[in-house]
Amino acid sequence: MTTIYDVSKLAGVSAKTVSRVLNEPDRVKTATREQVLAAMKTLDYSPNASARQLRLGGFSSIGLLLEDPASGYQSRFHQALLTACMEAGKYMTVELFEGVMPDWQARVDRFLTEGRVRDLILLPTLCDFTPLKDLLRERGARAVLIAPSVHDPHFPSVVMDDRAAARQIIEYLFSLGHTRIGHITGHPDHSATILRRSGVIEAYDARGLPRPKPELFASGDFMFKKGIEAAETLLSLPEPPTAIFAANDETAAAVAMVAHRRGLSIPGDLSVVGFDDAPIASAVWPQLTTIAQPYLEMARKVVHLVDTWDQQSTQSGFVSTYLTPHELVVRESSGPVLKG
Amino acid sequence: MTTIYDVSKLAGVSAKTVSRVLNEPDRVKTATREQVLAAMKTLDYSPNASARQLRLGGFSSIGLLLEDPASGYQSRFHQALLTACMEAGKYMTVELFEGVMPDWQARVDRFLTEGRVRDLILLPTLCDFTPLKDLLRERGARAVLIAPSVHDPHFPSVVMDDRAAARQIIEYLFSLGHTRIGHITGHPDHSATILRRSGVIEAYDARGLPRPKPELFASGDFMFKKGIEAAETLLSLPEPPTAIFAANDETAAAVAMVAHRRGLSIPGDLSVVGFDDAPIASAVWPQLTTIAQPYLEMARKVVHLVDTWDQQSTQSGFVSTYLTPHELVVRESSGPVLKG
DNA sequence: ATAACAAATGTCATCGATGTCATAATGCGG
DNA sequence: CCGCATTATGACATCGATGACATTTGTTAT
Q1: Higher pLDDT, A98 or A263
Q2: A56: Cβ–Cβ under 8 A, 6 or more apart, which residues?
Q3: What pLDDT does A312 receive?
Q4: Which of A11, B3, B106, B243 would bridge A39 by S-S if both were Cys, CB 3.0 to 4.6 A apart?
């Protein structure tokens, strides 16, 4: 590493002058400045950001731990958080994280030190990964969670009521006359999976209907591929459902594909509804009825929580939880049951 | 900001001891350690990463400038780069960047200093944005480009031969008997758009066929929505094409949707091919024939170029360009022309 | 030519944490 | 209770850059 002193020596000036060339070029005589610039080029000098920041007062970026950046859900939050950070003039540093990695603790430590990160954001499913949260508390790190309606007593969080949303979409299907409704569940490790599933059951209970038979629940994992298998299973039932509620839009897109392959028309023969309002929900034919979450709003709230951490946690001694609203978006993939 | 000295004062020990509690807890008597930990908790102390790194030797994260994180293309590279960085033990900090922002220069400066970034990665279309590249050279920043086969004399780059790939996919359609082939172009600002378009023409020329009539070129912008309009235009022609080559998969998905709406079967009535092998290419029905790029390989190469910047640029005085291979992936959306 | 002032450059201390080395506290065998 | 080996702790310098202030150089008016 070449330092400002190396440059100053080569250019025959003091370090301070080199510093000025970088920060207040006008205060340096043109001839000198050019010498310094030449020296910098020769040595391929680039200033040490740590030193600069130490002097100028620290800035730290917000850290995001991502389990699977290819997952649509995480990638959408990732994007929303980027936007929110930009709006707030902050930077975000991303680390891939998998709880199965044997050295995850060391990796988190490294992230907190080398990654120059003080505040972390955890998305599902990391927001449910207790060993990680314990480690963070031990290290005194700050974290904000984005979670499916599970309140964590130690970290502020932004949550969405997955159960209520699932219930709402099932009630919508009821209103169209559907009574045999299949549900493809999400990944078993996500707490959202349980919540959405129980939202379904809640809807039946609330309406006084008998709970759906077990074969109407097919297990998925939020991924397109597994969605295909699940859809095949449901549509091969002796008495197939007239509507399928997939735990997310990728899965719903898979259902649509399987239905097409089987010559079923949507929503004529089968209504398909998803969850998340992912881009794919508008990019498949027919476009999917789904539940929209206000990603950007949630991201903004998270950044705000990070920003105001001091006042919050230190002063009040309790953590805040924000419940964000959701919305049913009706598109082309759902319709009334055809008589007959 | 509380420092290590504040903690040491409160705990009644020296700063060095506090430091030890953090870095080599075993070398501190249990009683002392607990006092120190208590003081840290009371003061909500978190160590200053800049100072630590200054002492320990600098680490700097790689910066990625993203124009539009929602763009499938950029988001795929984003993900691939994250993976490659993780493999290489590096961190990546992301900044949203738009050339239209009036203060983009100041933003870049801030990113290079506050963002603690020394090396930058530029994707299309930023890799073509000359004012930015000029600024980076002036600042002595290091950048590596991911670009569509345009060699930049100042920065190392990883490129893909878009023209050849486009030519290849058209030749494949020729081999299926198609001669009226529509092309939906990409965003006019992307150099890839011109390259893919000229690859199309090259294929006709090479085969000694007359070049396609202008109405067979519809203008798109790589986005699903514009793709719908373009597809409507092409399919409304008096003599509609038997195949459509969309400049990317999102657009191809739009073509498929429009075709379905019009009751056309794919690939019976219309062959549809895309470009990129995006996730959506496998998530629509029928799955799309497309061109696959080795994203992860490219990302690894980029990280490697960043890593070896010193040896490369300083010593040899010229920049390296890596051409990466592409591959035609044949799926369900393309088939022979039906006689008749 | 010189005082008076502005411009250009340099010296030194500092940001917060840790390495080096010195010193103080403790333990243990005799 | 002493001497010596450990263990625990502290004082000080250091990382690379910049702020405050000092000093040198250059310019202008008289």
Answers
A1: A263
A2: none
A3: 58
A4: A11
Which amino acid, one-letter code, is at B158? V
Cβ–Cβ gap B40/A86 under 8 Å: no
Best mutation target, A94, A110, A261, to test chain B (most B CBs within 10 A):
A94
| 8 Å CB contact of B46 and A95 | no
pLDDT along chain B (340 residues), means of 10: 91 93 90 91 85 80 87 88 90 84 84 77 89 82 84 86 96 97 94 95 97 97 93 97 97 94 94 94 91 94 85 60 94 88
Going from the N-terminus, what domains does chain A have, and what CATH number goes with each?
A: 4-56 (1.10.260.40), 61-160+295-325 (3.40.50.2300), 162-293 (3.40.50.2300)
- Cα separation, B327 vs B277, in Å, equals 10
The answer on pLDDT for A328 being more than 80 is: yes
In this complex, the residue of A91, A114, A282 whose CB is nearest that of residue B115 is A91
List chain C nucleotides near protein: any atom < 7 Å from a Cβ: 7-12, 14-20
Q: Which ranges in A124-278 belong to alpha helices (H)?
A: 130-139, 162-175, 191-207, 224-235, 249-261
- The reported pLDDT for the residue numbered B247 is 96
**B94 and A CB contact within 8 Å:** yes
- Do the Cβ atoms of A197 and A231 come closer than 8 Å? no
> What burial class does residue B64 get, using C-beta atoms within 10 Å of its C-beta: 0-12 exposed, 13-18 middle, 19+ buried?
buried
A279, A251 Cβ separation under 8 angstroms:
no
| pLDDT tier for residue A22 given thresholds of 50, 70 and 90 | confident
Span A140-182, pLDDT tens digits = 778 899 988 767 888 899 999 999 999 999 999 999 999 999 9
Consecutive H or E run containing A33: helix A30-43
Rounded CA separation A337/A175 (Å): 10
DSSP state of A324: E
pLDDT band per the 50, 70, 90 thresholds, residue A109: confident
- Please state whether beta strands A217-218 and A181-184 pair in parallel, antiparallel, or not at all (unpaired): parallel
Q: How many residues does chain A have?
A: 340
- Report yes or no: B324 and B294 within 8 Å, Cβ to Cβ: yes
Per the structure block, which two tokens stand in for B232? 């409507």
